[in-house]
Amino acid sequence: MEKSSNAKQLFARKDEAIQRLTERVETLKTKLEEARAMVAKKQDSIERLRLQLASFMSSEGVDTLAHNTQEGMDEFFSETLQEKIYESFGRVLREKIRERGIEFDGRRVIDFGIGPGIVLEELLGHSKPSRLVGADFSTTALEHARKRLPAAHILQRDIYEMIPERFDVAICTEVLEHLEAPDRALANLLRTVDRGGTLILTVPNGRIDRSHFHINFWSPESWRLFVQAGIDLDERVWSLETGTFSPQQDDIPRINYAIASLDAGTTG
């Protein structure tokens, strides 16, 4: 009986040891996966920095105003699309929009400065707007957008040119910093929003942005003042939220955003 009891204790201790080893193995596996994820993030950050540095170096001596013409944008979009950067930006902004309860399903949506359509494609996800319009003045960018978003109505239109219809959601991302008259563009964007609708805007944070391709640089504070001034001139009842976010997996406030909502009972 004593030998049997000792054997049982021995087996029990072995089972406990095996269980502890199994738990340690699982813990090590988890840590390994976390380490791999961290390395992947760092590699992604390094690649982004490399692209930013290459862009900075290649932009030395650039004619900023010429770059931001239709011809300049056609040339730009014929050379590079920077798909990963646009996709990451669109995914992060989509989550921010969803957190605020802004939906695209069954709504009239327009994107001013749609570019190659990558950001809008990410913003929509699996949403199905009742009407989807993309507008840009770059012929080359619109060729890409038509391929990506075959269900969208794609227009070659200057952002200063009024579109004779209104929308439930108007989007303009990373465009105003390229314009000589961003106040005129903002006024046009606001007029495009129907009652109860929303205008979504983003620009780079001017405290961080050093691009030679940009004309305008807004700090988070001056950005809010700029958008609020445009709203005040519109004379309809708006609510405004502004802030910053990062399109990358870090806490660096690279992007200023504004979400302007038009009161459903407003007139005009």
Distance between the termini: 95 Å
Q: Report the strand count.
A: 7
CATH architecture of the largest domain: 3-Layer(aba) Sandwich
Stretches where pLDDT falls below 50 for ≥5 residues?
none
Query: For the record, what is the CATH homologous superfamily label of the largest domain?
Result: Vaccinia Virus protein VP39
Question: Quick check: average pLDDT?
Answer: 89
CATH class annotation of the largest domain? Alpha Beta
* Morphology: elongated
By CATH, the topology of the largest domain is: Rossmann fold
List the total number of helices.
8
**Helical proportion?**
40-55%
| Rg calculated over all Cα atoms | 25 Å
Strand order of the largest sheet: 3-2-1-4-5-7-6
Class of secondary structure makeup: alpha/beta
H/E element order:
HHHHEHEHEEHEHEE
Kindly give the count of domains.
2
- Strand content bin: 15-25%
Largest sheet, strands/sense/barrel: 7 strands, mixed
Structure description:
This protein has 268 residues and is an alpha/beta fold. The protein has two domains: 1-58; 64-262, Vaccinia Virus protein VP39 (Rossmann fold, 3-Layer(aba) Sandwich), CATH 3.40.50. It is 49% helix and 19% strand. It has eight helices and seven strands, in the order ααααβαβαββαβαββ. The chain has helices at residues 2-58, 64-67, 70-79, 83-99, 118-124, 139-148, 182-192, 220-234; strands spanning 108-112, 131-136, 153-156, 167-173, 193-204, 238-245, 255-262. Strands 3-2-1-4-5-7-6 form a seven-stranded mixed beta sheet, sandwiched between helices. Strand 2, helix 6 (139-148) and strand 3 (153-156) form a beta-alpha-beta unit. Helix 4 packs parallel to helix 5 (118-124) and helix 7 (182-192) crosses helix 8 (220-234). The longest helix is centred in the N-terminal third of the chain and has 57 residues, at 2-58.
